Amino acid sequence: MASHDLTRLPLAGLTETAWLSPITADDVEAVFRICQDPDIQRWTTLPSPYRHSDAVGFAADLQPQAWADLAAGHWSGAISSVGLSWGIRRSGPGTGTGLCGVIGLKWIREEVWEIGWWLDPAARGRGLMTAAARAVLEAAFDPAGPLRASQVLWRAGVGNQASRAVAQRSGFHYLGLEPDRSADQVPLWRAALTAGQPIRPVVPWPIPQPSTRTSAQAEADPARQ
Ligand SMILES: CC(C)(COP(=O)(O)OP(=O)(O)OC[C@H]1O[C@@H](n2cnc3c(N)ncnc32)[C@H](O)[C@@H]1OP(=O)(O)O)[C@@H](O)C(=O)NCCC(=O)NCCS
Question: Is the distance from the beta carbon of residue 124 to the nearest atom of ligand 1 less than 6 Å?
């Protein structure tokens, strides 16, 4: 299998041209702006409030360092601690770097990564994140590539149906609940995709797919129904 160029991953199955490429210092302002979104602050582990210095640290310092280390072929503290993040980019007039979201792989342990993602609210509902997840997963499992994952994990706060939909469409298999160790104490849905499993929708998922948070909360804590 030909190795994927991790610095330019085209997104398939969309009605628009979009691709993934590493986060750079040019993305600082877009990252800062998009990360003010309340849903991103609610559902991700990003700092909240999200400050300009957070965007600078992420886009201008940590990510360029991690990508430079990967290009140089040495496993670094940067890759282990911050992982690798791609910008989700669309072409079009007036879009600057075209950044409308981020998808990342965080290193957990040898051959195991955890995937995470967020999108500009204005870019949601177009299938961009599912296409991005599939591209990243193919690259992560590429036996000729540098990441050589044997498993990719996904975790989300119980009730995050938008993220659940992306994970389900990308081939993740639901594993169960785990306690959240953050201040919020919202339990987490946990799912995984293992090398060799198809990167395509998994139907059904064993968790309920409620239209309100009520049944998700009930699953997390049945005693409180
Ligand atoms: C997760 C995220 C990237 C998904 O973006 P997206 O793929 O464009 O998708 P949408 O937000 O439009 O929603 C995805 C699907 O979930 C569905 N969905 C969203 N909220 C839902 C809810 N409360 N109940 C049921 N379904 C829901 C949508 O209807 C959509 O399905 P459809 O295409 O069949 O209509 C985006 O919502 C986001 O950035 N959220 C904030 C950050 C975040 O949660 N990150 C993940 C942390 S684990």
Answer: yes
Query: Is residue 205 classed as helix, strand or coil in its secondary structure?
Result: coil
The ligand 1 atom at the shortest distance from the C-alpha of residue 124 is: 8
pLDDT tens readout for residues 80-128: 888 999 999 998 766 678 999 999 999 999 899 999 999 999 999 999 9
- The pTM of the whole model exceeds 0.85: yes
Domain range summary for the chain, segments of one domain joined by +: 1-127+142-147, 150-225
Q: How large is the angle between the packed helices 161-169 and 128-141, nearest 10 degrees?
A: 50
How far, in Å, is the centroid of ligand 1 from the Cα of 223? 28
Just give the CATH number of 1-127+142-147: 3.40.630.30
77-81: list long-range contacts, CB under 8 Å, 24+ apart: 79/107, 80/107
